[in-house]
Amino acid sequence: MATTAPAEAMAQNEKVLSDALAAASLSDKDVETKPELEEGEIEEEEDDGNPKTVFDSAARFNLKHPLYAKWTMYFDSLASKATTKTEQTSIPNASAHGGWLDDIRRVMEFDSVEEFWGLYNNIVPPSQLPGKANYYLFKDGIIPAWEDAQNKNGGKWAIQVPRDKSKAQIDQMWLYTMLAAIGETFESGVDGSAPERSDLVTGVIMSCRPGFYRIALWTRDAPDVSLPETDELMKRILTIGRYFKVSVLGYAEDQKLMTGGFQTEILFESHKDSERKGNKNKLTI
Ligand code: MGP
Questions:
Q1: Is 131 near ligand 1, meaning CB less than 6 Å away?
Q2: Closest Cα to atom 33 of ligand 1
């Protein structure tokens, strides 16, 4: 049955309603409205001065986990050739390297785990890079060139895989290589022996080419390839190569590498030999 409210009750309801509206408009005026966030902008949180990890506050963490060393990420591609260099993106003393470094741009320096992930989460992964491009991650201000004093007596371990068959794996291969570099674990034994800090690796390079991907890790010294495995430097270089193959890339130690039907080898050669194209002085694992 429908009911009709008495006039007195109706009037009371109206008063309650108008009081509520008045209160609401008052509080609207008193409350400070926050500016709308732009796309990608992070809401500022109050800094109470207490120590915070990135898990406590993604925007205002003040506790970082330091790396052993400072690292710099560099990049070059056809696109970077066209960009203007600024003081921030150019490499100091680049002209001393005969034009080789002209197109390489400094992306960012970092010395903590948090900054590494901040960088990694904001750059394009290798699988998404078109054509020819390189990422270079080098330590302690070392320039990604053979000519740098820390590289000139060194060499590199490198693996080259076909581009079309390796797109699904290449991002993880590169990420794990960078983590081993900045964690300085390359001289750990593949038998699971405790990681030791490795100071032989100066940097790692991800090269994207139209037909293949190559990951290289540069070392500051290079043994004569005819030396026996008992030679101290040879032993260290082989340990690094095996750690790269087994612990970083996930192959079995004695595995002959086939990627999508192609034979893929992990090779070491000195930079001096790289400069002399066509040389055969290479180590294989
Ligand atoms: P690369 O890019 O390492 O080889 O070197 P890739 O990918 O086989 O060849 P690309 O042409 O597809 O890039 C290519 C060439 O760059 C070498 O032959 C050198 O002429 C020059 N180059 C490479 N590196 C690492 C250096 C370096 O450190 N210093 C100088 N001066 N030249 C370099």
A1: no
A2: 100
Would you say the CB of residue 145 lies under 6 angstroms from ligand 1? yes
**Host domain of residue 103:** 66-284
- What is the structure's pLDDT at 129? 93
- Name the average pLDDT for the chain: 82
pTM exceeds 0.90? no
Instruction: Tally the domains of the chain.
Output: 2
User: Crossing angle, helix 163-182 and helix 113-120, to 10 degrees?
Assistant: 160
Instruction: Name the more confident of 4 and 255.
Output: 255
Residue 59 covered by a domain:
no
In a domain, residue 42? The reply is no
Clarify whether residues 21 and 101 are in a common domain.
no
Query: Is pLDDT above 80 for 19?
Result: no
> Residue holding tokens 């010395």?
111
Q: Establish whether residue 96 lines the binding site of ligand 1, counting it when its CB lies within 6 angstroms of any ligand atom.
A: no
Q: Please state, for a pLDDT cut of 70, what percent of the chain lies above it.
A: 73
CA dist., res. 133 & res. 123, Å (int): 13
* CA atoms of 274 and 135, how far apart (whole Å): 19
Helix H or strand E encompassing 237: helix 232-243
The pLDDT of residue 221: 96
Ligand 1 atom, smallest distance to 146 CA: 28
C-alpha to C-alpha distances, 223 to 146, 187, 197, 275, nearest whole angstrom: 16, 16, 20, 16
Q: Cα separation of 26 and 223, whole Å?
A: 79
